[in-house]
Amino acid sequence: MNDPTPISRSVTAELDAETGALLDRMAESLGISPAAYAAGVIRRVVQSEAELAAFAQVGIDELDRGEYILHEVVMAELDTMVAKHEARCRA
User: DSSP secondary structure string, 50-88?
Assistant: First the structure.
């Protein structure tokens, strides 16, 4: 969790007492400062959120290009597949 990356920005956040105590306990359990722990947590969450946003953007771009299938069409195809399967099972 100790990242040698130089500090380029400082962020101040207000925490409720319970969250502050948990932050202190977690940092202490890792042998680092609460600030270092918070920086690592923020880094991981921001990276995760950025990955999720990029993943969602792929779908949004496909929709914008008209690359999608309507729900009704998918359900009709599934109904046809189920009906064929059921017919085979009864045969």
Answer: HHHHHHHHHHHHHHHTT----HHHHHHHHHHHHHHHHHH
- Indicate the residue type of 47: Q
- Summarize pLDDT for 39-83 with one digit per residue, the tens: 999 999 999 999 999 999 999 999 999 999 999 999 999 999 999
- Does pTM surpass 0.85? no
Length of the chain in terms of residues written: 91
Domain residue spans in the chain? 17-65
- For the record, the structure tokens of 48 come out as 């995760």
Quote the CA–CA distance of 50 and 46 in Å, as a whole number: 6
